[in-house]
Amino acid sequence: MAISVISLRDVRRYYIVGDFIVRALDGVSVDIGKGDFTAIMGPSGSGKSTMMNLIGCLDTPTSGKVFIDGEDTAGLEEDDLAFLRSRKIGFVFQQFNLLGRISALENVMTPLLYAGVGPRERRLRAKDALERVGLKDRMMHRPNELSGGQKQRVAIARAIVNNPSILLADEPTGALDTKTGEQIMELFSDLNKEGRTVVLVTHNVEIGMACQQQIRIRDGKVEA
Amino acid sequence: MFWENVKLALGAMKSNKMRTILSLLGIVIGVASVVAILTLGASVNASIKGSISAGGLELVTIYPTGTSKYASTFNEAFAETLKGEVSAIQEVMPVNSHNALIRNGQNSTNGNISGVQSSFAQVLGYEVEQGSFFSMEDNISKHQVVALGSELAKELFPEGDAVGKYVSIFRNQAKSYLVVAVMESKDASLNLSYNYGAYIPYNTYTSRFMSVSSVGSYIAKIKSDQDPIAASKAITSYLDDLIGSDNYSLFSPATLSEMADQITGTFSTFLAAIAAISLLVGGIGIMNIMLVSVTERTREIGVRKAIGASPSIIMGQFITEAVVLTFVGGVIGITLGTLISYLVTSAMGWGMSISVSSYLLSAGFSMAIGLFFGWYPARKASRLDPIDALNYE
Fold it and tell me: Coil, strand, or helix at residue A186?
């Protein structure tokens, strides 16, 4: 078996809502190998967002173990989680979530700032990343001057700029038209072929099936 | 990281100009009033001290006020005694004065007749315009000669050329005095006035003008290398021991000037403290706007956290924003306060004394307010749960 970049071992994540315990994830064990292109699929409320938050180091499990690139996230404080995200995870969101007041280039430079990279190198690497996603000539534009597809490309450049172990995308085509969505999927596919581990969270079967492998979640458990 | 935060802060301020201006108003008004009050205080102080010291800080006047008991102590020779007792004194001159009618032909006026020693003009730096001040010989021989103050000379001799002419001075009977000098105009100080005086030799005064044995006042000049305040204290302590503080009064411009310093200092500190309350109110305004800003940018905070910002980085971003905000407010306030001070001092003709310490104080204080009132909103931002923040609509 290939080396696991993501490894979930009997992961449970419970929330207390009023008098109820919501079992968002209820004993999930999953391995995703280095260089895989995986879709986590499931209807809304299935627990796939919870799983994405755990993989993205935004959250820690109630019980069980989450290993990201060999590091156990259990019991980590917020600062340590932030440090882990900064090195290991590149996020791509459905609503792009670019910072509005700064240029595309500055958006892409921001993760490097948080990772402690010096200003000259930040600029260089951000330019490379934007070039990689095909936005060399839009670097100085602000997000509101870009189309949806271009925004998502900036977001992908921002996600890959720090060379993370995992590229984690949450419904990345959800806010795009079909044609632009296909182009974005192509970009993910290309990035995967370059050796990047891509995890895509979606409820869209078509998008999910475009990935190499699928993990289906329902009611907090992995479907066989 | 610091400069990126400053850049972000300026960007946030620019993107919401009206709100920025309104929320800065409190700080601006607070800083402007602190600066204006301290600057005006310093200016008033300088103006008061200017008029106190105009006659020379080194001149101390002593007036015997005692009843007959000590009248004999205050004789002409006491001037020398005092000079011998207080080493900081360069010269002590006895002076006797009385008002009298002076006449030249049809022109007559009331003048202040002073019996002074021949060194009087030179010791006080009182310049002769025409003729020459009377000599020691005039004093010893009790000659009837007079040096006229500039205004007095003008009234008695409207055509000028007073020197060499005679004036009559009335005291019980008229006596003729030869005008030997007309003095230059000299501004009055708080304890000495010159231009309406007529100066005659001390001995002439006591024997021919008015029969007195005691001395009306002593003018002591402090040595230029001595501290006039310390010297005044030395004179005071000597006289207190000798005759008690009730029997004389002492007038020292240097001591008064020091008092003026204390009074205006206390007063402007007090007013500045009141003005500082408005800085506090301004700080609360900053806190309010920062809380709004944190709520508005919840999603941005979530994104920043997702792409690797730690809580302390987020905290730093918002603290910096608050401090930049108050710093800008401080700079505008300092400018405004200086402008107000400039307008007021030029309207009052005071001459503006810029108080650099007030600038540093208010700039520092407003930034401290940013730090203090920015801390809570920034901490709130830093503690946001990234998942909640990302899903915030």
Answer: helix
Question: What is the distance between the alpha carbons of residues B218 and B120, in angstroms, rounded to a whole number?
Answer: 11
For chain A, what is the mean pLDDT? 92
- Quick count: other Cβ atoms within 10 Å of Cβ A190? 12
Q: Does A77 touch chain B (CB under 8 A)?
A: no
Residue in B with minimal Cα distance to A87:
B308
Residues of A in contact with B309 (CB under 8 A): 82, 114
Its ipTM equals: 0.93
Tell me which chain A residue has its CA closest to the CA of residue B11: A101
pLDDT tens digit sequence for A147-194: 999 999 999 999 999 999 999 999 999 999 999 999 999 999 999 999
- Please indicate, yes or no, if residue A126 is contained in any of the structural domains: yes
- Please compute the mean of the pLDDT values over residues B362-378 and round it to a whole number: 90
Q: What is the mean pLDDT of the segment spanning B363-377? A: 91
Q: What six digits make up the tokens of B261?
A: 């310093």
**How many residues in total does chain B contain?**
393
Q: How many CB pairs under 8 A join A and B?
A: 65
Dihedral angle sign, alpha carbons of residues B341, B345, B347, B351: negative
- Cβ distance A143 to A107 under 8 Å? yes
A162/B contact by beta carbon, under 8 A: yes
Q: Do A99 and B386 touch (CB under 8 A)?
A: no
Write the CA distances from B363 to B20, B22, B30, B374, integer angstroms: 18, 19, 11, 16
To the nearest whole Å, the CA of B307 is away from the closest chain A CA by 6
Q: Which domain covers residue A128, as residue numbers? A: 34-60+77-222
Give the distance from residue A1's alpha carbon to the nearest chain B alpha carbon, in angstroms.
30
Among candidates B11, B308, B387 on the partner chain, residue whose Cβ is nearest the Cβ of A82: B308
Closest chain A CA to residue B3: A119
Into how many domains does chain A fold?
1
DSSP state of A19: T
Is A78's Cβ below 8 Å from some Cβ in B? yes
Q: Is A137 on the interface with B (CB under 8 A)?
A: no
Q: Measure the CA–CA gap between B74 and A159, rounded to whole angstroms.
A: 97
* Pairing verdict, β B197-201 and B145-148: antiparallel
Cα angle value A153/A154/A159 (rounded, 5°): 95
Residue A54 CA to residue A65 CA, distance in Å, equals: 10
The CATH number linked to A111 is 3.40.50.300
Residues of A in contact with B299 (CB under 8 A): 97
Tell me if B353 sits within 8 A of B46, measured CB to CB: yes
Residue of A nearest to B303 (CA): A97
Establish if A101 belongs to a structural domain: yes
| Interface residue A58 vs chain B (CB under 8 A) | yes
Instruction: Compute the distance between CA of residue A215 and CA of residue B364 in angstroms, rounded to an integer.
Output: 58
B197-201 and B107-116: which strand pairing?
A: parallel
Residue B251 has pLDDT above 60, yes or no: yes
CB distance from A114 to chain B under 8 Å? yes
pLDDT band for B193, please (50, 70, 90 cuts).
Answer: confident
